[in-house]
Amino acid sequence: MSKDTTLELGPLDKDDEKRLSGPLEGSTLHKDRHRPRHVHINGQNNNPQQVAIGAVIASQIASLVLIGLLYPRLYSISPFGSSAIVSTLLCGFSQGLLQLIVHRRLNPSALLKFYCWGIINGLWTKWWTSSLSVIVPSIPLRIFCDQAIGNPTNLLIFLSFVSYWDGREIETYFHQTYFKMLKTSYIIWPFVSTIQFYLLDPRLIVPFCSVVNVFWTVILGIITG
Q1: Contact 91, 120 (CB under 8 A)
Q2: Where in this protein does the record put region Disordered (predicted)?
């Protein structure tokens, strides 16, 4: 039979009773008791910048849907005007996506800059592709001229516009950026040129190039961070 091994303790003095009955000073339980508690409710901590960009993107998509429905009629009225409108909306949309995905903040000045560039780009692209189709009947030669002359010229116009808008020294900006961007552009734009001259109706060239430019702008923005 086993023996009782209960340990008998002597009576506790007053100091021991205070230590056992009082709050556990310095303990986690005591600290947690006085720590302010923050309750996060879904939807209350959304970044206002993200909400603003989301509203901009929604309005841009609505505008693109509307212009898509009206484009054939607008083109019959003014080929250059309709091309400028489509390019403007899509260039602004590309910048909106870039701000939403990469920068994660709203930059109204950059949006306005790309809307203005869209007008220039639409008019230039329409004039250049229409002139090229008339002057150069051979499609392979037309594609070559587009990439040898049109692509570098379009990039030069773009960098000149950006330099003027941002107040940069165009010569310095040109040397830092032009040839890098030109080299990168040849990854995709020769294929775009081939598709537009072989497969597309002339009315669809500017919208097609502008749509490709949306994805190209976002991809470059993601790559460069």
Answers
A1: no
A2: 1-32
Could you give the percent of the chain with pLDDT greater than 70?
A: 77
Lowest mean pLDDT among 67-81, 100-114, 199-213: 100-114
**Which residue shows structure tokens 């669809």?**
204
11 lies in some domain: no
CA-wise closest residue to 74 among 53, 54, 88 = 88
Distances (CA, A) of 93 to 33, 67, 132, 178, 179: 51, 13, 28, 24, 26
Nearest Cα residue to 150 out of 170, 128, 169, 168: 128
Say how far apart CA 54 and CA 94 lie, in whole Å: 13
pTM given for the model: 0.74
The sign one gets for the Cα dihedral 91, 93, 96, 98 is negative
Report yes or no: 90 and 213 within 8 Å, Cβ to Cβ: yes
Q: Please tell me the total count of domains within the chain.
A: 1
Question: Cα separation of 31 and 36, whole Å?
Answer: 10
Determine the structural domain holding residue 118 and report its residue range.
48-224
| 27 within domain boundaries | no
- How much is the CA Rg of the chain, to the nearest whole Å? 32
pLDDT, one tens digit per residue, over 16-59 is: 555 545 554 444 444 454 554 444 444 444 578 888 888 999 99
Q: Is residue 23 part of a domain?
A: no
